[in-house]
Amino acid sequence: xxxxxxxxxxxxxxxxxxxxxxxxxxxxxxxxxxxxxxxxxxxxxxxxxxxxxxxxxxxxxxxxxxxxxxxxxxxxxxxxxxxxxxxxxxxxxxxxxxxxxxxxxxxxxxxxxxxxxxxxxxxxxxxxxxxxxxxxxxxxxxxxxxxxxxxxxxxxxxxxxxxxxxxxxxxxxxxxxxxxxxxxxxxxxxxxxxxxxxxxxxxxxxxxxxxxxxxxxxxxxxxxxxxxxxxxxxxxxxxxxxxxxxxxxxxxxxxxxxxxxxxxxxxxxxxxxxxxxxxxxxxxxxxxxxxxxxxxxxxxxxxxxxxxxxxxxxxxxxxxxxxxxxxxxxxxxxxxxxxxxxxxxxxxxxxx
Length: 352
Known about the structure:
Elements: H1 6-16, H2 28-32, E1 43-49, E2 55-61, E3 66-71, H3 80-94, H4 98-106, E4 107-112, H5 117-122, H6 143-155, E5 159-165, E6 170-172, E7 181-184, H7 196-212, E8 220-222, H8 232-238, E9 242-248, H9 258-277, E10 293-295, E11 297-304, E12 310-320, E13 323-334, E14 340-347
Parallel strand pairs: 3-4, 3-5, 5-9, 7-8, 11-14
Antiparallel strand pairs: 1-2, 2-4, 6-10, 7-9, 11-12, 12-13
Helix pairs in contact: 3-9, 4-9, 7-9
């Protein structure tokens, strides 16, 4: 297995991180000025527009026969993958390391760094017409869904990377750790059969997990592979396009997801590196050793000596007066002994 070293990845990320992008609310205006610096090496083009006519951009690079399509922010309020992609773009632009030489010789890469710019502007999961693009793979009611399918069919990739963020509620089963990164090889139909495409997808995920265990051991989870008939990954997998789902989650005290951004970057680069150096993708068994995601966390728990009165809170992110605001809301109470708070406040006595 061609696993990139922790030291190599840490040094690379520290040097090439795109410093102009920070925080969870990333809009098209935040990335609009960055595209020009990549034009010397990438093919940069506008491939379409959103429902509200914001540009949807694509970057293409490489000359190899292994085709890889990557997209981020199909949910507008999930930007960790977008930031990680721009970190990767800087690496490809600036690094002369043989890792990138090999990738560009063996692979052709197409990136759509912000598929849902309207949702990004409003900081919502859905697009401007309230369509969840990740559940629109069959109807394709949204312009953005039609565009993604068009690019998919024209480019005909061997592998796809579908980049998302997951909620802070998820932990790694059997541990008390948050799920900082979670993976999924989507099912193609309701029986969840181990098809050739799923095995190949699992092989790449096994490589990414092996790398992450060197950096964040026991912080990697696995999503349920229950089949969703209208979901993007499930349908692309069914159509024969191997689709790797990466869910960026929570790391201790990392509510801006900057640490998680780093590990998302590590994962994407390791996945592409593995594909570029592999001729077969058959080593899937260790995929099932990745622990399941487990809903065990709240953002804050107030604990009382009478545990029957514990109270749990979750942050709700929203845009108010054009500013990003996180508000704590009470979401659960009473017996929370089986739950963990990312922050816990212990009070003596009973709640008043």
